[in-house]
Write a structure and sequence with these properties.
Shape: elongated
Organism: Planococcus wigleyi
Number of strands: 12
Structural class: alpha/beta
CATH topology of the largest domain: ABC transporter transmembrane region fold
Keywords: ATP-binding, Membrane, Nucleotide-binding, Transmembrane, Transmembrane helix
Radius of gyration: 35 Å
Low-confidence stretches: 1-32
CATH superfamily of the largest domain: ABC transporter type 1, transmembrane domain
Helix content: 55-70%
GO molecular function, one term: ATP binding
Strand content: 5-15%
CATH class of the largest domain: Mainly Alpha
Membrane topology: Multi-pass membrane protein
Transmembrane segments: 50-77, 89-109, 168-186, 192-211, 289-312
Strand order of the largest sheet: 8-9-10-5-11-12
């Protein structure tokens, strides 16, 4: 019909005819994915299966009563109205009233219980997805937009919810009504039934033509929604940077482009979907006209009674109505399956697992050894991120990591925390390979103080207590005092009960850092991983942070990404990284005496 599906108002094509008509080489695989998706939804029903059987039984009842009503009307016409004999008609009318009341009650109950089932399924789906996200490795989140993941948690699951709430019963009821109506119609008049069934092939061809296009377009729409949500989340989070660099026009243009893509996908998806009721109504009216015309001729010839014609015309509408419903719901189901596939694709991601782990019962002390460790990020085609790195840090010592951006300093910390596992070599903690230690056990021994501290939307005390959830109020205050944070906390509107919103935007960067130090202090870890954040802090606050860090690091094995010379001077060991390799190590004085890379860094004022 068209060489391309074009953007409205004469813009360039969005999807070519060839793209939409091209046979999908993975058609069988996609069909199998649909089956797998539906099977996973069925498994989520679980405890609700008995109630679901009750609901389906009520669907049988309501469908049977829907068929019985028109039959009784035709019976009344043939047995009482046409012969003008009304004796006994009252009883039949009473039965007819009970049939319609029973039909209404069964519809109400099945809808009421189905909503409960649907919400329980969605609750489990949402809960399992969120729980699964907590068990996925850091590498998973590094490769995906957070807003796109949020879209799967909200939009895609809501799509499944609306379909389960309404479409499931409607589809099942439509199939039963079609089957029952066809049987009764064949019993009453095979000829009129044949005339009614003529529209089915036409409907099938029309729906096939439409849904071949809407299926792809719905997936494109869900993908566009995810991308747009990701961009919105990122923009809101980085609003200060956007304003600081006056990038509002560029952001607005990017939003317009993504929103335009979503609009185009939604426009064509719903445009094609909108064809279905129009086509169905046209075919329904044509079928009804044919049945009414031929039925009238048959009634005049005495081949069928007037009551049968009345019953049949009602059944013909009752036959095409579920076809209409099936056609309309098919698009909704397609959209829900597309959303469910996106949700289950996340659930199918491999969780962070501990293979062949040891039961570490001894109290860890903090000796760290890197033995010829090499690592590169998954899918990276460039050189190794770190290569053949070997060093050892004794119990309670502080190691300062120095080097240019991209030298591998942060990667060493991430490997030590097992956010990633080394490709080659071995990392040992107190002589035990950390690859053989449960991640939870390992990470309980480690605390982080990051360059950009993250605070939750919660009270000050709860943010500190995040390092030790069962900490008492006295322990929280003690940790705050140790981090030099107590004085400024006391001056907040509600003290320790002050709610921090917007990632703690109501307090300064230095105060955030003091709270993150208090959080690490209350955790009482064996190992500290520190990324100093004093470069943009005023001198007074910097002194407080330095004092708090010294208190925190006392007696603990610490790794510090050093940005200030003062930190390096106090370190027991300096590790100089360059292009992923450890090029120098030793005390500051030893490195200065060696007159190598570290000495040149100091001479060039790069530290």
């Amino acid at each position: 019909m068209f060489n391309a599906i074009r953007r409205p108002f004469g813009h360039e094509p969005l999807f070519s005819r060839e793209d939409l008509k091209k046979k999908d080489e993975k058609k069988n695989e996609r069909a199998e994915n649909w089956k797998s998706t539906l099977l996973q939804i069925w498994r989520l029903v679980d405890e609700q299966r008995f109630l679901l059987i009750v609901v389906l039984s009520l669907v049988f009842v309501s469908s049977a009563l829907a068929l019985l009503g028109p039959y009784l009307i035709g019976f009344i016409i043939d047995e009482y109205i046409v012969p003008q004999s009304f004796n006994g008609m009252g009883i039949v009318v009473v039965w007819l009233i009970f049939v319609y009341i029973g039909h209404s009650v069964s519809l109400y109950l099945q809808n009421f219980w189905m909503v409960g089932i649907a919400q329980q399924v969605i609750f489990r789906m949402r809960t399992r997805l969120f729980s699964h996200l907590q068990r996925l490795p850091v590498s998973f989140f590094d490769k995906r937009q957070h807003g796109e993941l949020m879209s799967r948690m909200t939009n895609d699951i809501e799509n499944v919810s609306s379909t389960l709430n309404t479409s499931f019963i409607q589809v099942f009821s439509s199939i039963l009504t079609l089957t029952g109506t066809a049987i009764v119609m064949l019993t009453l008049s095979p000829l009129l039934t044949l005339l009614t069934l003529i529209i089915i092939p036409l409907m099938y061809i029309s729906i096939q033509w439409i849904t071949k296009r809407t299926g792809r377009l719905y997936k494109e729409q869900q993908k566009a929604i995810g991308e747009l949500n990701g961009m919105i989340e990122e923009t809101i989070s980085g609003q200060k940077i956007i304003k600081a660099f006056s990038q509002e026009p560029r952001v607005m243009e990017e939003f317009r482009e993504k929103s335009e893509r979503l609009r185009r996908a939604g426009f064509w998806a719903w445009t094609y979907a909108g064809f279905i009721p129009k086509v169905m109504n046209f075919l329904n009216n044509g079928s009804f006209a044919i049945v009414a015309g031929v039925g009238g001729i048959l009634a005049l010839n005495g081949s069928v009674s007037i009551g049968v014609i009345v019953i049949f015309t009602e059944y013909s509408r009752q036959f095409t109505r579920p076809l209409n419903d099936l056609a309309n719901q098919f698009n909704t189901v397609l959209s829900a399956i597309a959303g469910a596939e996106r949700v289950f694709s996340i659930m199918d991601e491999t969780e962070e697992k501990d293979d062949q782990v040891l039961n570490v019962e001894k109290q860890l002390e903090g000796e760290v050894v890197f033995d010829q460790v090499s690592f590169k990020y998954e899918g990276a085609e460039e050189d190794w991120t770190i290569r053949d790195v070997s060093f050892s840090v004794g119990i309670g010592q502080t190691a300062a990591l120095v080097g240019a951006t991209g030298a591998g300093k942060t990667t060493i910390m991430q490997l030590l925390a097992r956010f990633y596992d080394a490709n080659e070599g071995e990392i040992r903690l107190d002589g035990t390979p950390i690859a053989e230690m449960p991640r939870e056990t390992l990470r309980k021994q480690i605390a982080f103080v990051l360059q950009d501290p993250f605070l939750f939307e919660a009270s000050v005390s709860d943010n500190i207590r995040y390092g030790k959830l069962d900490a008492t109020d006295e322990e929280v205050v003690e940790a705050a005092k140790g981090a030099n944070a107590h004085d400024f906390i006391e001056k907040l509107p509600d003290g320790y009960d002050t709610i921090l919103t917007g990632d703690g935007s109501m307090i300064s960067q230095g105060q955030k850092q003091l709270l993150s130090i208090a959080r690490a202090l209350i955790a009482d870890p064996v190992i500290l991983l520190l990324d100093e954040a004093t470069s943009s802090i005023d001198t007074v606050t910097e002194l407080k942070i330095q004092e708090a860090l010294e208190h925190l690091m006392a007696g603990r094995t610490s790794f510090v990404i050093a940005h200030r010379l003062n930190t390096v001077r106090k370190a027991d060991m300096v590790l100089v990284m360059e292009m992923g390799r450890l090029v120098e190590s030793g005390t500051q004085q030893q490195l200065l005496n060696g007159n190598g890379i570290y000495a040149n860094m100091l001479a060039d004022a790069k530290l």
